[in-house]
């Protein structure tokens, strides 16, 4: 048996999980969970990256005390980074991708490098917060920097002293050549990002290094190997999608964001994929994650936050029960509208979106939450269908992994909206994918993704939802009368 620590940092919470892997065996337990999110200071939204580092160290110590560890892997949300100076010191605090500093940057950049060309090289969807746009927004500060490290690479650097960039997360920067699997240094130069900032790439499964001796001593840990996993949380989550061999499956990695798409062997770079704003992110073992970002449970979390800021106490389980009892498909909104991206008053934005599309805004808490969950399921339908059409595939089953797999209303409505069965679970897919890739590196067998998924199917609780109807096409027509829009 190997016992492995998976550090998995989502945009809402971080956790240190301990996974045990042996022949035909896979168990995972939560060792430590801590909140994560934006911290606003002097008008800028930051991450508390040092707080995350402190929590990781505490979690690793705890995990090892509960049973000796054999390795450590780190995955996190994508696109964000820290800059280091020539001595390896952090220059400034990493900024949150929802910060307003990227407003208008994408529009400026595409005047220099047209969208078609950007997509041709990087295969990436246009999101205003792609690393490329974040870097351009702080171009004047780049002269003092010598290395850019994406969040999981930065945290691994603090554990091992080794700097590098793991491929799956590098592929989310829009500075990565999706076909050559190298940094797109020519593109970086054209937008004014110095190529010297981009560190050597490393494959998921590579050993990054070992815990620094002083850290190991402080934590009473051995000098454990730190292994590069699919360091983009979505890449690790897709590893743990319990797809049957040969199945025509789509996946939804449903957490703060919902990442909805297919696993392909090669990027899909046609005009239709560009027009539909699909992305080709790098997956573990050279796969391509052909997907689209759907705004996700963020809209619900932010709604709860808005209510609690007004002292209207609202527990998730309670409002979901009210939503389940509310009339179906009363009002729907396009959750992917840019208005829902920044933090703020989601109930007010939802009401405004309903009025704009000639619908009566939700009148009660239950109706509002029902509107969010219906709208998410509708976006899942739209995106799964688009992905299948663009890739020339059929989809017979949709896997939901991540925290959204706990949401029984959302899972049922997804089966209804997509008109195919939904298989929900595992909830901790990213941590499981992280553990499995480490386990392979450290000699636990598991030669390929199929073997990893087989182990997930055999060991993890999954729940099946069967389609039960609803007029989803009519709901879609309320939002996009002329067909699917971008
Ligand atoms: P991230 O990795 O982005 O931080 P997670 O995958 O942990 O996100 O998912 C968090 C979301 O999962 C929460 O915002 C919540 O909506 C949903 N969730 C978690 N637990 C439950 C639950 N017991 N019932 C319903 N939804 C849940
Ligand atoms: C999900 C995620 C997603 C990215 C976003 C920034 O946690 O990594 O895949 O697009 O965060």
Provide structural commentary.
With 486 residues, the protein is an alpha/beta fold. The protein folds into two domains: 2-233, Nucleotidyltransferase, domain 5; 241-425 and 447-486, Nucleotidyltransferase, domain 5 (2-Layer Sandwich), CATH 3.30.420. The chain contains 18 helices and 21 strands. A hairpin with a 2-residue loop joins strand 2 and strand 3. It starts with a strand and ends in a 7-residue tail after the last helix. The relative contact order is 0.13. This is Rhamnulokinase. One of its GO terms (cellular component) is cytosol.
CATH superfamily descriptor of the largest domain: ATPase, nucleotide binding domain
Proper CATH architecture of the largest domain: 2-Layer Sandwich
The number of helical segments is 18
* Radius of gyration, CA atoms, in whole angstroms: 22 Å
Secondary structure category: alpha/beta
Strand content: 15-25%
Average of the residue pLDDT scores: 97
Gross morphology is globular
- Indicate the CATH topology of the largest domain: Nucleotidyltransferase, domain 5
Please report the distance between the alpha carbons of the first and last residues. 48 Å
CATH class of the largest domain: Alpha Beta
Roughly what percent helix?
25-40%
How do the strands of the widest beta sheet line up side by side?
A: 17-18-16-15-19-20-21
| Low-confidence region ranges | none
Biggest beta sheet attributes: 7 strands, mixed
The bound ligands are:
adenosine-5'-diphosphate, 6-deoxy-beta-L-fructofuranose
Pfam families: FGGY_C (PF02782), FGGY_N (PF00370)
Domain Carbohydrate kinase FGGY N-terminal: 69-239
Protein name: Rhamnulokinase
Family: Belongs to the FGGY kinase family.
């Amino acid at each position: 048996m190997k016992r492995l620590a998976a550090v998995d940092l989502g945009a809402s919470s971080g956790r240190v999980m301990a996974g045990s892997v042996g022949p035909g065996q896979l168990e995972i337990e939560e060792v430590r969970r801590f909140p994560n999110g934006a911290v606003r200071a002097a008008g800028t939204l930051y991450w508390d990256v040092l707080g995350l580092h402190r929590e990781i160290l505490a979690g690793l110590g705890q995990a090892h005390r509960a049973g000796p560890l054999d390795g450590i892997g780190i995955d996190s949300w994508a696109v964000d980074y820290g800059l280091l100076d020539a001595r390896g010191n952090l220059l400034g605090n990493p900024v949150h991708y929802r910060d307003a500093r990227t407003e208008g940057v994408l529009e400026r950049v595409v005047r220099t490098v047209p969208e078609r060309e950007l997509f041709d090289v990087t295969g990436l969807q246009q999101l205003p917060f792609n690393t490329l746009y974040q870097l351009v927004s702080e171009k004047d500060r780049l002269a003092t920097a010598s290395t850019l490290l994406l969040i999981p690479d930065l945290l691994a650097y603090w554990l091992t002293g080794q700097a590098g960039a793991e491929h799956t997360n590098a592929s989310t920067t829009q500075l990565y050549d999706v076909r050559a699997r190298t940094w797109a240094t020519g593109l970086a130069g054209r937008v004014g990002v110095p190529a010297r900032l981009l560190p050597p790439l490393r494959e998921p499964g590579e050993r990054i290094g070992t815990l620094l001796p002083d850290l190991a001593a402080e934590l009473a840990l051995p000098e454990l190997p730190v292994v590069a996993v699919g360091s983009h949380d979505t890449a690790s989550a897709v590893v743990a999608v319990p797809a049957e061999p040969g199945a025509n499956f789509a996946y939804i990695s449903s957490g703060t964001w919902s990442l909805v798409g297919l696993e392909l062997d090669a990027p899909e770079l046609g005009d239709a994929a560009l027009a539909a704003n699909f992305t080709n992110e790098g997956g573990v073992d050279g796969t391509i994650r052909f997907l689209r970002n759907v705004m996700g449970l963020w809209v619900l979390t932010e709604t709860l936050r808005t209510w609690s800021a007004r002292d209207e106490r609202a527990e998730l389980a309670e409002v979901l029960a009210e939503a389940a009892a509310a009339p179906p498909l009363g009002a729907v909104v396009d959750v992917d509208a840019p208005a829902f991206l920044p933090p703020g008053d989601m109930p007010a934005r939802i009401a405004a979106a309903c009025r704009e599309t000639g619908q009566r805004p939700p009148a009660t808490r239950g109706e509002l939450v029902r509107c969010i969950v219906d709208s998410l399921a509708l976006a899942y339908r739209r995106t799964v269908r688009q992905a299948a059409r663009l890739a020339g595939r059929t989809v017979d089953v949709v896997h939901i992994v991540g925290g959204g797999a706990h949401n029984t209303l959302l899972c049922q409505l997804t089966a209804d909206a997509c008109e195919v069965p939904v298989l929900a679970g595992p909830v901790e897919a990213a941590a499981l994918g992280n553990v499995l890739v480490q386990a392979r590196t450290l000699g636990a067998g598991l030669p390929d993704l199929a073997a990893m998924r087989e182990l997930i199917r055999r060991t993890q609780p999954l729940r099946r939802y069967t389609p039960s109807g609803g007029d989803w096409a009519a709901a879609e027509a309320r939002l996009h009368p002329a067909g699917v829009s971008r």
